[in-house]
Amino acid sequence: MKRELAQELTRSARGSKSSRSHREPSKSRRVIAFLIFLVAIGGLIFANIQEEKAEVVEEEVAPAEIVERVIDPDAPKALEKLDEIEIKGRAPKTGYSRNEFGNGWGQINGCDARNVILFRDLTDIEMRDNCVVASGTLHCPYTNKIIPFVRGENSSEVHIDHVVALSDAWQKGAQSWDRDKRIAFSNDPMNLLAVDGPANQQKGDSDAASWLPSVKSFRCQFVARMVSVKLKWGLWNTQAETDAMRRVLETCPNEPILQ
């Protein structure tokens, strides 16, 4: 009886070992598979993190630092043309109102001037129709802010600035113009830029003697545009304004005027 019991225990022990030996490889395979799964998930998470980092870095890069401008060496230079602008005192602001330059935006090729400038200055544009910009992205030249534009939601965050302000133009020659010429001036794309709303409010009706963009790398372009507008429309400068323009343009003597 004892002998039979011992034989039975021996068989059971062998069977148990055999069973474990068959289960262990299966368990090992499951562990390996689980580790592979963890590595794959980790790789996806790392890739997503890197992609998010890349997007953030791209937004933080200042447009003025990544856009290389090509300057025509034969174009007239703003510094040289500055001397052609007449220097006089500022006339009184008496009689000025925004309506002297038209009631709102005029038309350019059948579309209002605001949407024409949004189309020119924004990127990633989506149109509502042939004339209306529904959305886009502004890289503000005054501040280097990146501003998503969505019509109706944050339209007021993007302004269209008169580089030579209407009030400033009024005091430097425009008050003697007829209404049609003032309306044409108000809607001239050369004198218009899409910019950050708060920066435009800060600028107000200042000239170059009292306000310049906070982005120093844009100041040459800004002043050259002012010179171009003044020459095109026959507006004058004050002495302080000419002096301020000259200080900026002497740092970039090859900056061309717009034509």
Key attributes of the depicted protein:
single chain, 259 residues, alpha+beta, two-stranded antiparallel sheet, 9 helices, 7 strands, disordered N terminus
Task: Chart the SSEs and their pairings.
Layout: H1 2-60, H2 63-66, H3 78-81, E1 107-108, E2 111-112, H4 113-121, E3 123-127, E4 133-139, E5 146-150, E6 158-162, H5 166-170, H6 179-186, E7 192-196, H7 197-203, H8 219-233, H9 239-249
Antiparallel strand pairs: 1-2, 3-4, 4-5, 6-7
Strand content: 5-15%
Largest sheet: 3 strands, antiparallel
What class would the helix/strand composition place it in?
alpha+beta
Please state the average pLDDT score: 81
Parts with pLDDT < 50 across at least 5 consecutive residues: 1-28, 34-69
Shape: globular
Report Rg.
34 Å
Helix content: 40-55%
Secondary-structure element order, as H and E?
A: HHHEEHEEEEHHEHHH
Q: How many beta-strand runs?
A: 7
Distance between the ends:
117 Å
